[in-house]
Specification:
The structure holds 4 protein chains of 4 kinds. By secondary structure, chain A is mostly helical. Chain A has one domain: Helix Hairpins (Orthogonal Bundle), CATH 1.10.287.3510. Helices cover 71% and strands 0% of the residues of chain A. In chain A, helix 1 packs antiparallel against helix 2 and helix 2 runs antiparallel to helix 3. The longest helix of chain A is centred in the C-terminal third of the chain and has 31 residues. In chain B, 74% of the residues lie in helices and 3% in strands. Chain B contains 25 helices and 5 strands. Chain B is globular and about 80 Å long. The two termini of chain B are 21 Å apart. Chain C has one domain. Chain C has 23 helices and 2 strands. A two-stranded antiparallel ribbon of chain C has the order 1-2. In chain C, 70% of the residues are buried. By secondary structure, chain D is mainly alpha-helical. Chain D is globular, with a radius of gyration of 31 Å. The chains are: A mainly alpha, B mainly alpha, C mainly alpha, D mainly alpha.
């Protein structure tokens, strides 16, 4: 590869903003995941985290003037979609069983 | 540029598996019992086929063209996956859909394509194995990520569908949500690695990091990115601090899936781990001391070593002390799986100079032991349910001496009694730890081996020593020969493999052939 | 070489045959297999050319089983290991045939495990490759675990568990140490070797004193559990007490010797600096063990437990002789390993024979059996005398040479081997002779002699159901079942007694066989001890200035 | 106790002959003295296994012992002035390094034949033969039961005693030392169903072991000093380096002494001997009176060159001997069990011997051993005959006037004769030997021991008193007896009286035995020839034991035969220079020994008289005084004795004398309370520590640690997804923070 990295000078505002936003997204995702009991909300929070990571990639991509970050994001979206499908299926299955969306209802498996 | 056709050709094993997975998904829906029962055979054939394909396509030129960080990793690793995959198929065969199939066979139920899961179960199993294989030939982070997801997503479903019940659903839920969390962490780590180096490709990434290392040292972004990636991957390994799901999920999941979970994500995770760590490198790093002098040292960058040391030590410890308290077989084996991840992490820390080879050697042993142990357990049932307590195993040697012997064999091998293969692989691991300057980890490993002995002995005690009780009298052998065969073959392997230890050590050492460590990359840079 | 492998593999093959054979044939097969193994080893010993040279024969082969680090299948004997292996091969048929009446259920498993145990012990003694030694050493635990856990007494599971975990933990120290040495060898010479001789030469010459200190400490820690030394001995009384008779016999006979052999073969030659530096500490532990265990023996009421604790005491003396670091003590120590195996093994066998008849070992409930079983009583007294070191029997020579070696192991000894112990240690350990007589005669006085005390007729009630009733006991009335020793039992004891007698009367061949090996092992020690003495200048000066102060050693 | 190869080797050695070229041909057969008892021991063992139910074992033993005696007699004629070493076979021997001095250890099965050896073996084998003959009748009730065991043990004893005395090195001596201990153990515990016998046997062995430890340590020390434990080489080494002032050389005698005190029942280790009377009486006579207990004397006599260098040690030996003599005599005065009285008298007499050794007269000590062997054997055997005849009765209060009981006249006569010897009545053998010791005590160079001469005289009086206390009470006076409770109630012996009853054809006696001695019906049965003949022979021997002295007395200047025997051995090496007059430059030469006393006694005046004269007169006086007191209290006015006892008991001031003497000065109790019980307590505590603290506490505690830790972590596996998510995310955050911290710290 090119030994000289075509990098933007550090502190590019857009990059910084993007990174900040991505960190916030990720953090919100985590906090939401930890604090919410509704499985659908929890899933959405994981999506938030995914998107946070994706945003970080795009920002870094801009910093490095490189497109692969954006390419990755497309794949992330695809995988997230697959996961969403899976998650919804699973949530429906679980809901059918216990008539609740609360994740706390499922704690049968634990250290006795 | 890379010759695409060559790269695709390299993926022949994966392609074989992928095609087979499509095939079994369809075959599983057939109305014909005969065709449906062909499914495991197809899987085995596909796995054998993938090994053959691997042998056929894995030529030096192609590898050269693929520009892989660990060019030879796939050769050993994919064969290992396929081999153990056969065992895992055999462990599964017979128990998936069994009651429904029995009902159909006796005419109590009519065949309903919507109710059978056999096809998709095996399809997912093969897909997951495909993912694990793909991880091994990832040239960049995107590929790596997709490979990892291909490993995980099918397993989420396998946990849920293989045997519907509250516990497996709960397991699936936990596995899925926590898995997603971990994936997000990995992903963020990937993003930071990308940010630190400006490339998704692993070899340029390694070069960029080498440049950093040769200069002022790795950037904080690179370091944190690596750490986050490692921690995210810890979920796959079931390593501290991402191991908490494992006992619950392993216990809740159907037995064959538990077997699958304790091997496939692990090997995929370890492969991903060394791939990521390979960009950081096990050499060429330096530390600035108080006088501003740079001191070069062997091994991963110090913070990463520190983290991995801690992770490895805690993983072994928490795994083993957790295992002592259990009454459920699968839960115990979950903790055992955690502890074994800890052992293997020692090899990762030591790195390409023996460590990774030893890790893969141990992985082979672990896979064989997993197949043997779960094979025995899958061959048993009590009142139509799988056997999941030590009590149920009591007196096994009276009713089923062969199975009891096999279980003893695999438990002793897990425990580390020479000359069984598990012990020898562990000795090699301890040895490379010494060699890699990780004597303290070697000591921790040995200590943990002793702690682990407590619960492995419980298998032995239950199966061979204890007299039959009311609960274990009802234990019968399932009317399928698959799991039993898997256990027998794997058990024999534990006895026979030591004879080929030397060759296996050499073979597993080839995983790092062609890998250029950071220090060497720096040196070659300077030469240029 | 072939004969060595034959003696190791014949039992393995026997175990395999037993696994598929008729359950009734198991015991005969096992006896045949063990005798065949003994025969092979005896033929080897007959042809053994290195009895008087101390050399290893045959030269370890280079047949690697792990070529990348050059771990080989090297087996070979020098006279010490051959003697210990012969002891093992000699005891196993006795154990097997001795179990004929005691073990009636799960016979195939029992004899199968016994054969594997035999093979692994022989392998450990024969191995010249440390990794191979480790394999044999460690694998012994598995059969023993089963033998105790399945056919043992009421607390058998706990005992087996403790035995396994404790010694397993100990052996990990040893494993770590040898891997460390192997790695150091490679790091230093660029070559791989696991040959005991090579590693010993390398480690003793090339490793710095500090490293040797820790190496010796780790090896000692590993083997001390097996020996067992105070204070890591507590698994032994339990294990002995719960084990079936033959298990106790082989445990006392040769398994414990793996520990002493390990120290003799690996720890001492590899780390002379460490050995010299730690000899005093280790000897203090040994000395404490002698007195401590002897006193505990004295208040036991369980015959088997008494003998078990006596092992701790006896092996304290044995190890003390080794740490005297002079040829006299080491010679005695090696001899003592063999003698202890014979006498204590025989005592366990005898207690087992009585136990088979009464199912009671508690001397509060049973005693004066000489009245019922005069022949048994004769052997009991005979082996007691052997155990307490009556001259003319085997125990004497080893025990006295150990104490003798300890006594003369002073800094200014004129033997050419300065030592770190001295009269003080010998005096304290010597009280073991008195205490030994006290507890062994207590055993004889209550168990063998004295008014006849037999348990009530429901003796079988106490007896744990899971292992064999004696085949005669069930059908006969109580008194009839309690006859004197049968011909089979006498046939087991007579060879033991003859060997004891022979060693006691004519130990010269053994002394001359052991001597050269001992000298080789101790070769680096005079210099190492001198250095240790110099590093404690005050002590050395005090020793020179005030010879009477030398009692502290 | 020895296997075929040993026999083979010794036979070969016999055939090949001794190694010393100048040795007499008779010496070739010296090994027989060991071999024959050994063979008979092995044959007895075989008899036992083949369940022989006849007197065959006795015959074998008597024949073997007789053979041994004959061998020794031949040796007696052949042995010269220089010791001969005969190597039977190699036992313990190997070298290391260059094999030079201190680089090897040799202790072979060698015989060391000099006159002391032969002298000692002479009475050992002689008495052994006679006592075996005696026992063949005495033990006949046990034929088919313990008979073979008994004679097997006696054979082993003779073999071991032979090794002890004839052995060529200290390890051989040790072998014999422990071997006789074993035989003693087996024979004291002969009635093994009797708890007292078992306890006594155990006590004997253990107390002896204490001494043995001293002997073993001495052995090590000797090797450390001189580089050898073989006599021949040792004497040379000592000559090369005499009077070593090294602490090691000075310590040797103290350790040897300990061994000797154990075996020879001296303070503080004498306590086992009285209890040893639980054994059959022939055993008491042979082992615990005549032979084995003199091994300590032999040891010190043999090792005398090592004692010479340390006057303190010799003084200690003398004092221990003197005090033991006194203590045992006082106890003996107050006992009622005949055998026990003789046991205490044995201790007391052994005390004399040690006194003699301590004051440097190895001759006196050995002579006293010699005379004592005969008369004490006689006394025990007569006591045995009485016991045999009176159903185990030994209480001197319950036996009286036996001289008049038919069948017991000879026995009684011999017993009374024995009493005269024991009391050292003037011109009996014991008188001369005791005289020798006391004279040496008065004339020793070491002033510290002179007072022991007076103590010895007091003991002489006490001895005469208690001896005749037995003599007058049991054998004189009105005929009165109660049978005993039939041999300690030993169940093997229940039918003992029965056999005898038939043997004598006396139905009354038989009935009496069955009914455990109803007084009126009891008829004592006298001994037959196998008991009588040895008794008479031993009495003759006892009489002849004084012969050497008579000859010396009659032909003034003729050397005492015993002295010649002793003087030509290591027992006199250096003696001349140290203890006796300096004129006696080489006492080993018999010619130099003559007239020795005349010179030696100059300057040592006792009560203004020449020591010999004074001691002779005082000794006679003491003896006669003791006998007279005894005569009054125990024959003429027996009530006076009881009255005296009552008087003494009545006063607080004197009460302790009686109680103390009767209760053996509470030494056993003292040992029990001061040593045994505390040790037992410690042992119990250690046992508890081992099981509770070490095993259950520490080991199990450490073993439980992993599980305990596991429990600690359990709350983290709570089962709720969010819980796991928290720990995982928290873990990630922690690790990330940690890494940044490391990184920052590393970067600085």
């Amino acid at each position: 590869m090119n030994p000289i990295d075509p990098q933007l000078p550090p502190g590019d505002p857009l990059v910084m903003l993007g990174l900040l936003a991505s960190a916030i997204l990720f953090a919100v995702g985590i906090v939401g995941f930890l604090s919410r009991r509704n499985m659908i909300t929890m899933f959405l929070c994981t999506e938030l985290m995914f998107q946070g990571a994706g945003l970080a990639m795009i920002s870094y991509g801009r910093q490095h003037m490189d497109l692969s970050g954006q390419v990755f994001v497309i794949f992330i979206l695809t995988v997230a979609a697959a996961e969403a499908a899976l998650a919804l299926g699973l949530v429906v299955l679980l809901y059918r069983r216990k008539e609740t969306l609360s994740a706390e209802a499922w704690k049968e498996l634990a250290e006795s | 540029m890379v010759d695409m056709s060559q790269t695709v050709a390299l993926l022949a094993p994966e392609i074989v598996l992928f095609v087979a997975s499509m095939l079994v998904a369809v075959l599983g829906l057939s109305r014909s019992t005969g065709i449906r029962s062909l499914v495991p055979w197809v899987c085995v054939a596909a796995l054998v086929g993938s090994i053959l394909a691997l042998e056929a396509v894995w030529t030096p030129e192609r590898i050269q063209g693929a520009r892989l960080l660990f060019p030879m990793l796939g050769k050993y690793g994919k064969a290992l996956i396929a081999l153990i995959g056969i065992g895992l198929v055999a462990v599964s065969a017979g128990s998936i859909d069994r009651r429904y199939e029995e009902a159909v066979a006796r005419g109590r139920a009519s065949f309903d394509a919507l109710r059978v899961v056999r096809g998709e179960y095996y399809a997912f199993l093969l897909l997951s194995l495909t993912g694990a294989m793909l991880v091994m030939s990832a040239p960049d982070l995107i590929w790596l990520f997709l490979g990892l997801e291909l490993v995980s997503l099918p397993t989420y479903i396998m946990v849920a569908v293989a045997r519907t019940g509250r516990r497996s659903m709960e397991a699936a839920m936990k596995y899925f949500f926590l898995g997603a969390l971990a994936t997000a962490v990995t992903l963020y780590g990937f993003a930071m690695l990308y940010g630190a180096t400006g490339t998704m490709q692993l070899i340029p990434m390694r070069d960029a990091l080498a440049e950093q290392a040769a200069g002022a040292g790795l950037s904080t972004t690179a370091l944190l990115g690596t750490i986050l990636t490692v921690l995210g991957l810890c979920f796959k390994l079931a390593a501290v601090p991402m191991h908490f799901y494992a006992p619950d999920v392993y216990e809740g999941a159907p037995l064959p899936v538990t077997a699958f979970l304790s091997f496939t994500p692990k090997i995929a995770g370890f492969s991903a781990l060394i791939t990521v760590l390979g960009t950081v490198g096990w050499s060429g790093h330096a530390m600035v001391d108080h006088d501003g002098v740079r001191i070069a040292y062997e091994g991963l960058p110090q913070p990463i070593t520190a983290v991995l040391w801690m992770v490895a030590a805690l993983t072994m410890l928490l795994g083993n002390i957790g295992g002592i308290l259990q009454t459920s077989l699968k839960r115990t084996l979950a903790y055992s799986s955690i502890a074994n991840s800890g052992y293997m992490l020692v090899g990762v820390i030591v790195g390409p100079k023996g460590g990774i080879g030893a890790m893969y050697l141990f992985m082979l042993g672990y896979g064989v032991m997993t197949v043997a142990t779960f094979g025995v357990l899958a061959a048993l049932e009590r009142k139509g349910e799988e056997v999941d307590s030590f009590e149920s195993l009591a007196g096994l040697r009276a009713s089923h001496p062969g199975l009891a012997f096999l279980l003893t064999l695999s438990a002793l091998s897990l425990l580390g009694v020479p000359p069984l293969f598990g012990a020898l692989a562990k000795i090699v691991l301890v040895f490379v730890a010494f060699e890699g300057g990780q004597a303290s980890l070697a000591a921790v490993l040995l200590l943990n081996t002793a702690i682990g002995a407590v619960y492995y002995l419980r298998f032995v005690g239950a199966a061979v020593v204890n007299p039959t009780n009311a609960k274990s009298q009802e234990v019968v052998v399932v009317p399928h020969w698959w799991p039993k065969t898997a256990a027998v073959v794997a058990g024999l392997g534990l006895i026979v493999l030591p004879a080929f230890l030397s060759r296996l050590v050499d073979a597993s050492a080839t995983t790092v052939d062609g890998y250029v460590d950071l220090g060497e990359a720096v040196a070659s840079d300077e030469q240029r | 070489m072939n004969l060595i492998w034959a003696s190791i593999l014949i039992p393995v093959a026997t175990a395999a045959v037993i696994a598929v054979a008729n359950a009734r044939a198991a015991r005969s097969l096992a006896a045949l297999g063990s005798l065949a193994s003994l025969g092979a080893l005896a033929v080897f010993a007959w042809q053994f050319p290195a009895w008087s040279t101390g050399a290893v024969f045959p030269e370890p082969c280079g047949c690697a089983w792990l070529s990348s680090i050059n771990a080989t299948l090297g087996v070979g004997f020098d006279s010490v290991s051959l003697l210990l292996a012969l002891l093992e091969a000699f005891l196993i048929p006795i154990c097997v045939i001795g179990s004929w009446s005691a073990i009636s259920d799960r016979q195939r498993e029992y004899y199968g495990w016994f054969m594997l145990l035999h093979a692994s012990i022989l392998l450990a003694f024969a191995a010249r490759d440390v990794l191979l030694f480790y394999v044999g050493y460690e694998f012994t635990l598995v059969p023993l675990l089963f033998i105790i856990a399945i056919w043992g007494g009421p607390e058998r599971r706990q005992a087996a568990h403790k035995l396994f975990l404790y010694t397993f933990l100990g052996s990990l120290f040893f494993l770590g140490s040898i891997l460390f040495v192997g790695w150091q060898h490679h790091a230093s010479t660029g070559l791989w070797s696991w040959d005991m001789g090579t590693l010993s030469t390398f480690a003793s010459a090339r490793l710095p004193a500090n490293t040797q200190f820790w190496l010796f400490a780790a090896l000692l820690a590993g083997f001390a559990v097996k020996v067992p030394l105070f204070p890591v001995h507590t698994w032994l009384p339990l294990a002995h007490n719960q084990a079936p008779t033959a298990g106790s016999v082989i445990l006392a006979g040769t398994l414990l010797k793996l520990g002493t052999y390990g120290i003799f073969r690996l720890a001492l030659p590899m780390a002379p600096e460490g050995g010299a530096a730690l000899a005093v500490l280790a000897s203090v532990l040994c000395t404490v063990a002698v007195v401590y265990a002897a006193l505990i023996c004295w208040v036991q009421t369980d015959a088997k437990k008494l003998v078990a604790y006596s092992s701790v005491s006896h092996l304290g003396i044995c190890m003390l002789g080794l740490f005297a670091l002079n040829p006299v003590g080491a010679q005695g120590s090696v001899l003592y390993m063999i003698n202890h195996g014979l006498s204590t093994g025989a005592l366990f066998l005898l207690i087992g024979m009585a136990y088979e008849r009464y199912h009671v070992k508690d001397m509060d409930q049973i005693g004066g059996l000489a009245k019922r079983m005069p022949v048994w009583a004769f052997f009991m007294v005979f082996f007691t005398m052997s155990s307490i070191g009556l001259p003319g029997l085997n125990g004497f020579v080893g025990e006295y040479l150990c104490l003798f070696g300890t006594y003369i192991a002073t800094a200014d000894a004129s033997t050419g081997y300065p030592g770190l112990l001295g009269p003080g240690f010998a005096l304290v350990a010597g009280t073991g002779l008195i205490l030994g007589a006290m507890y062994m005669l207590l055993l004889v006085g209550r168990y063998v002699f004295g008014p006849l005390r037999e348990p009530k007729a429901d003796g079988h009630g106490k007896h744990d159901g899971s292992h064999g009733h004696d085949p005669h006991g069930a059908g006969h009335g109580h008194d009839e079942g309690h006859g004197d020793l049968t011909g089979r039992e006498i046939g087991l004891l007579v060879p033991l007694a003859l060997v004891c007698l022979f060693i006691g009367v004519y130990p010269k061949p053994m002394l001359q066989a052991i001597g050269p090996v001992v000298e080789r092992t101790l070769a680096p020690y005079p210099a190492a001890v001198e250095r240790t003495l110099k590093s404690q200048p005050q002590a050395a000066e005090a020793a020179k200035a005030e010879p009477k102060e030398d009692d502290r050693g | 106790m020895i296997a075929a190869p040993a026999m083979l080797s010794s036979v070969l050695a016999l055939a090949e002959g001794p190694l010393d070229a100048h040795a007499a041909p008779e010496l070739r057969w010296a090994g027989l003295a060991l071999l024959l008892p050994l063979i008979s021991g092995v044959l007895c063992l075989l008899c036992g296994w083949m369940k022989v139910r006849s007197k065959l074992p006795a015959a074998l033993t008597i024949a073997a012992l007789g053979g041994a005696f004959a061998t020794i007699l031949r040796l007696q004629g052949a042995v010269g002035e220089t010791p001969v070493v005969i190597n039977l076979f190699d036992w313990i021997s190997w070298t290391w390094g260059d094999g030079s001095r201190f680089h090897g250890f040799t202790a072979n099965v060698d015989l060391y034949i000099d006159r002391l050896t032969v002298f000692w073996m002479l009475f050992v084998t002689g008495l052994g033969t006679l006592i075996a003959l005696y026992a063949s009748e005495y033990m006949e009730s046990d034929v088919g039961k313990g008979y073979t065991r008994f004679f097997g043990a006696v054979s082993i004893f003779l073999f071991a005693m032979g090794c002890l005395v004839m052995g060529g090195n200290l390890v051989m001596l040790y072998l014999g030392w422990e071997g006789v201990g074993l035989a003693s153990y087996l024979l004291i515990g002969y009635y093994f169903t009797k708890p007292e016998a078992v306890a006594a046997a155990k006590k004997a062995f253990i107390v002896n072991r204490i001494g043995d430890l001293g002997l073993a340590l001495a052995l090590f020390l000797i090797w450390q000093c001189y580089g050898t434990v073989e006599y021949a080489a040792l004497w040379k080494a000592i000559e090369a380096a005499p009077a070593s002032s090294e602490w090691t050389a000075q310590a040797i005698p103290w350790l040897l002494m300990l061994g000797a005190f154990g075996k020879s029942a001296q303070l503080p280790l004498y306590v086992w001997l009285p209890d040893a009377m639980e054994g059959p009486t022939p055993v008491s006579a042979l082992i615990h009176a005549a032979t084995m207990v003199t091994a300590g004397v032999y040891l010190i006599a043999r090792m005398f060159p090592l004692f010479i260098v340390n006057p303190d040690a010799l003084a200690a030996v003398a004092w221990v001997g003197g005090l033991t003599a006194l203590l045992a005599a006082t106890i003996g005065m107050a006992q009622y069990d005949m055998k026990r009285i003789w046991a205490y008298s044995t201790i007391s007499q052994l005390g004399y011997m040690f006194l003699g050794l301590g004051v440097g007269t190895t001759f006196g000590a050995s002579y006293h051993v010699f005379t004592h062997a005969f008369f004490k054997a006689l006394l025990f055997l007569t006591a045995g005959a009485v016991m045999h005849g009176f159903a185990g009765q030994l209480d001197i209060r319950k036996l009286s006037g036996l001289l008049k009981v038919p069948g017991f006249r000879l026995v009684s006569l011999l017993a009374v004769l024995g009493c005269f010897w024991l009391a050292a009545f003037p011109f009996t053998a014991a008188f001369f030997s005791k005289d020798e010791i006391l004279v040496s005590a008065f004339t020793a160079k070491d002033e510290r021991v002179h007072v022991l001469g007076w103590i010895g005289l007091v003991v002489a009086a006490l001895t005469a008193y208690y001896t005749f206390r037995v003599g007058f009470r049991v054998f004189f006076g009105p005929v009165k007896y109660e049978p005993g409770d039939e041999h300690h109630g030993h169940d093997d012996h229940q039918d003992h009286g029965h056999d005898h009853g038939h043997a004598h054809g006396s139905h009354g006696a038989s009935a009496a035995h069955g009914g455990h001695g109803h007084h009126g019906e009891f008829h004592p049965h006298g001994p037959r020839w196998a008991i009588r003949v040895p008794l008479v022979l031993i009495a003759v021997g006892a009489m002849l034991a004084g012969w050497p002295s008579y000859r010396t007395m009659l032909n003034h200047g003729e050397p005492n035969w015993v002295k010649t025997q002793v003087a030509q051995s290591s027992a006199y090496q250096g003696v001349a220079a140290e203890s006796h007059g300096s004129h006696d430059d080489h006492a080993a030469a018999p010619t130099a020994a003559e007239g020795e006393h005349a010179h030696a006694d100059h300057g040592h005046l006792v009560l203004g008289m020449d020591a010999h004269t004074a001691v002779g007169r005082l000794g006679s006086l003491a003896c006669i005084a003791g006998i007279l007191v005894s005569l009054y209290l125990h024959l003429i006015n027996r009530g006076a004795a009881d009255a005296l006892r009552r008087t003494l008991m009545g006063s607080i001031a004197t009460r302790w004398i009686v109680v103390g003497a009767e209760r053996k000065w509470l030494v056993d109790e003292f040992y029990d309370w001061v040593i045994r019980l505390p040790l037992r307590l410690v042992a119990n505590i250690l046992s508890a520590i081992d099981e509770l603290l070490l095993d259950a506490g520490i080991v199990n505690g450490i073993g439980a640690l992993p599980a305990a830790f596991g429990r600690l972590f359990r709350p983290l596996y709570g089962g709720v997804v969010q819980g796991y998510a928290v720990t995982m995310a928290g873990g990630v955050a922690l690790v990330a923070a940690w890494v940044i911290w490391i990184w920052l710290r590393g970067a600085n």
